Amino acid sequence: MSDRHTTTEELLAEVAQLRQRLVDLEASRAEQQTEGLLLRAALVASVNAIAITDRTGLIEWINPAFCKLTQYTVAEAVGKNPRELVKSGQHDPAFYKDLWATILSGQVWRGDMINRRKDGSFYAEEQTITPVRDGHGAISHFISVKQDVTARKLAEEQLREGARRSALAERDFRTLFAANPLPMWIYDLATLQFLEVNDAAVQRYGYERDEFLAMTIKDIRPSEDVEQLVTHISQPREPWRSSGNWRHRLKSGQTIDVEIASHTITFAERPAALVVAQDITERKRAVETLRAAEERTRFALENANVGIWDMDYTTGVLRWSEAIEGHHGLQPGTFGRTFEAFVERIHPDDRASVLETVGNAMKSGADFSMQYRSVAPDSTVRWLSGAGRIHLGEHGEPVRGVGIAQDVTERRKLEAQFQQAQKMEAVGRLAGGVAHDFNNLLTAILGYCELLLPDFQAGDPHRADLEEIQKAGTRAAGLTRQLLTFSRKQIIEPTVLDLNAVVSDMRSMLGRLIGEDITVVVDPGPELALLKADRGQVEQIVMNLAVNARDAMPKGGILTIATANIELDEDYAVMHAGVTPGSYVALTVTDTGVGMTPDVQARLFEPFFTTKEVGKGTGLGLATVHGIAKQSGGSVGVYSELGKGTSFHVYFPSAEAALMAVDAKPPVTRWPPVEEWVLVVEDADGLRELFRRLLQGQGYTVLVASNADEALRLFEEHPSIDLLLTDVVMPGASGPELTRQLVERRPALKVVYMSGYTEEAIVEHGVPKPGVAFLHKPFTSDALVRKLREVLDG
């Protein structure tokens, strides 16, 4: 194994530096009062049950609707986890695990639950859980909004039951229809005429039953929605349809938002639709109220009083503090003191939105906030965050405006970098955990396939079944490796590669990644020399360069991937620092995109440098390409012209002539008889038995242990043990800790480590990287025996 270019320790150090810079930046903000009263009023008045929890899930605040829904008082609920209040047992642990994974990642979770009230009765709810971030961008709280949908669920279940039981008696159907608490009706699919309505529909919509039956469903829609309705009905219908985007008009003229569930039925011997409607107007209003309150709160929390402006609309004089003048690249006292002078400093692309925002505020007197770019006299572009309030006179005319502005250029860059670093760290940790579990499972699947295959002759259908299982397991192992490659958590295993084969294997994946508007051309070089590198890292280079090329061709184009043998001479080495003259295998990725300026090319491989918009580029892709090429002993070159395109050339040293074994599954070897004793230490029961059988089949005497303590006992009882085969990460003492104890007793003991974890986790548990005998799960029996023979034979 060889070291990775970017270690997790370095990545964590970068994360720590970014986090500290963000903390320092946020510490400079002046504290402001929040508009908490408005938010609290909105929450208290909401018809939906709302709870605010801390990051661990403990309730800090609930509104009256929450008490009414759950029957718990504030004193009974605060300080508890919601699951303690609703011990329903309706959801397994995996449900809550997925829920927590979603909201801890910063995403909003929406779903249905069955919960229990204080008196033990059950109710159905629709719940939305929204993460709330503090001033540093970290998740500090969660807002849970619950809506009691028991009646709707009951109605839908009743409708489903009615659909399944076509023999339902007319009397029972009429009773169910009439007694349902939600509005229900039946209409003719051909004429759209109402055929039947229940009492709840009459009461909610305000029409008498006879009026309903004289109308069509068009009559309860706002006129502007009728065309959409007709289009919707003309489309092929599934048995059940549900939508929250419809609006209905009551007899009073009021428009409400509804969510409907419909079912196609036969009524009075003609095609019809049975509909259940639920009024969601209050729910949407509550959501909008919460969203507005959140925006006002963000205004108070995120804006610091760094620079102050004051506009006198009666005189037309706009005053800026020195800080705001500095934000716009002006010397103190040089601002023109007019609104027009301010507009001149705004980036041309942002002027329209700024003028619209300020203009709307001047008409309504509402508070406003905005972010825009300023252009300094020396053409420097900076991002500013502004907020203000317009005071209106007694006739509604603007009299005075006051507000603040802050330079957030560095904060925007740091936040983007910090978020990307967090995502990379999270993806890496997730990938490592998933890889370990999958690798253990795949080791068992592939190993037991190897044990069973010799028992079946060629042509036996059971042998074909086993071979299919083995193929699927091998493909799954490749997917796990790809996951680790993309997350930069893979164990680096250099092998001799055919670059043409690597590119060919990636061809279909690149087609899906690039998109249909870009033509991918692969031009493999003839008689291409081999190279020695980690296959996953080479694939990552191809993928990163292909993605960069795609982004450089927003209107489509041609992406060419070519390979060739090339000689880099002394002259080239002199002109390119760090290049050694010699034979190389070249990978060239060319696009017909927008090209790059010389200034951009000069910073191209700097970590976090990107020319893409915030949120659309990490600035790490080309830095990773450069690092992998250097780690492999090669280099990267680039040539670009504005408006014509860009070519990246990655040079890999040719493998030595003696290294002719290409990256492929080695042939199964028939090993000579052996007499050695092997002690296998593996905490997974299935794998422990598998390794015992595989090695016994090769003639080894095998002892197995599930942990270090058991291994120590067997080691003392059997002095003839020649080799220790141990997992790295185990409960109790780790593999390296066990090795140290055994080698102290017998210095001649040979050791082979194995693990399904990533390199980071293995190193953390004490396995030194240089010269260690290591097998990464999953591995074949032939690879296992081959590694043991390498170690035993010295």
Model description:
The protein has 794 residues and is α+β, with helices and mostly antiparallel strands. Helices cover 41% and strands 25% of the residues. The strands form six sheets. Strands 2-1-5-4-3 form a five-stranded antiparallel beta sheet, sandwiched between helices. A five-stranded antiparallel beta sheet has the order 7-6-10-9-8, sandwiched between helices. A five-stranded antiparallel beta sheet has the order 12-11-15-14-13, sandwiched between helices. α26 (735-745) links the parallel β25 and β26. α2 runs antiparallel to α12, α16 (409-452) crosses α24 and α17 (461-486) crosses α20 (535-551). The longest helix has 44 residues, at 409-452.
Q: Which strands sit side by side, in order, in the main sheet?
A: 2-1-5-4-3
Number of structural domains? 5
Secondary-structure class: alpha+beta
Tertiary shape = globular
Strand proportion: 25-35%
**Rg computed from alpha carbons, rounded to a whole number of angstroms:** 34 Å
- The poorly predicted ranges are 27-34, 657-668, 760-768
Mean pLDDT: 79
Structure annotation, total helices: 28
- Let me know the CATH homologous superfamily of the largest domain: Histidine kinase-like ATPase, C-terminal domain
- Give the CATH class of the largest domain: Alpha Beta
Biggest sheet layout: 5 strands, antiparallel
Quick summary of this structure?
It is built from 28 helices and 27 strands. Strand 9 (255-267) and strand 10 form a beta hairpin.
